[in-house]
């Protein structure tokens, strides 16, 4: 994933400003930019295109950006940059207090907008795709598992692992690349009372795949070895 491959959604009803910002973004390498002029169409485009960044105006024809921000946050943790003509400290603090990633007021310098966007994208996404330097981190494609925090981080946001899912993944990771039998996994997760947990293990595997796989129906990382157990694919293995 490249910084400039990120999809950006601009929600603003000022057509002249929208055209100008799109030109600035594309001139600086951001080729995939979607636009919307109100809250309703903004939510529609957001759900359809799943952008990596939203630039959101506060004053919109059918509502306000603060309310739309909350609705967007219910769907995704994609970063949001408020863009507004309002320069009052209260509005800026309120927007940042909601959890916005940044706030910039009109008028603005084109390069300032680009620098803020680049900083947000690098901070939110691209530190996650670097090889881990700390112990207890597992990289699975574009997902990063933090064992210490029991979290899976990706471009779509952060997902928490349950205690059993964490134990299961730790066991597979300790023997990464090798077949781990059903009994060995159950014993690691349920310890002395592991007998009879085979069906429950299948449920946990399914839920774990939903959190770490791009397509849980066609898993790449947690591979089933029929009749034996499961295997966690190594990062450098060539896919078939």
Automatic annotation (TrEMBL):
Domain of life: Bacteria
DNA-binding region: 135-234
Protein name stated in the entry: Stage 0 sporulation protein A homolog
Coiled coil regions, renumbered to chain: none
Keyword rRNA processing attributed: no
UniProt entry keywords in alphabetical sequence: DNA-binding, Phosphoprotein, Transcription, Transcription regulation, Two-component regulatory system
Annotated function: May play the central regulatory role in sporulation. It may be an element of the effector pathway responsible for the activation of sporulation genes in response to nutritional stress. Spo0A may act in concert with spo0H (a sigma factor) to control the expression of some genes that are critical to the sporulation process.
Stretches assigned to the OmpR/PhoB-type domain: 135-234
Domain Response regulatory: 7-121
Residues annotated with 4-aspartylphosphate modification: 57
Membrane spanning residue stretches: none
Organism encoding this protein: Blautia hominis
């Amino acid at each position: 994933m490249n910084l400039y491959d990120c999809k950006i959604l601009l929600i603003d009803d000022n057509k002249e400003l929208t055209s100008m910002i799109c030109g600035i973004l594309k001139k600086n390498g951001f080729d995939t930019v979607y636009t919307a002029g109100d809250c309703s169409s903004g939510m529609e485009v957001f759900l359809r295109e799943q952008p990596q960044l939203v630039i959101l105006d506060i004053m919109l024809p059918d509502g306000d950006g603060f309310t739309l921000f909350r609705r967007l946050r219910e769907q995704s943790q994609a970063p949001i940059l408020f863009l507004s003509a309002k320069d009052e400290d209260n509005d800026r603090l309120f927007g940042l207090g909601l959890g916005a990633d940044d706030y910039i007021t009109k008028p603005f310098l084109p390069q300032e907008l680009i620098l803020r966007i680049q900083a947000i994208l690098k901070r939110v996404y691209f530190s996650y795709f670097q090889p881990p330097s700390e112990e207890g981190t597992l990289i699975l494609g574009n997902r990063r598992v933090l064992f210490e925090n029991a979290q899976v981080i990706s471009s779509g946001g952060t997902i928490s692992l349950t205690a059993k899912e964490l134990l299961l993944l730790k066991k597979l990771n300790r023997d990464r690349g090798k077949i781990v039998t059903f009994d060995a996994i159950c014993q690691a997760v349920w310890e002395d009372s592991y007998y009879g947990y085979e069906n429950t293990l299948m449920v946990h595997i399914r839920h774990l795949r939903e959190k770490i796989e791009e397509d849980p129906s066609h898993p790449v990382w947690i591979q089933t070895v029929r009749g034996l157990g499961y295997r966690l694919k190594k990062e450098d293995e060539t896919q078939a």
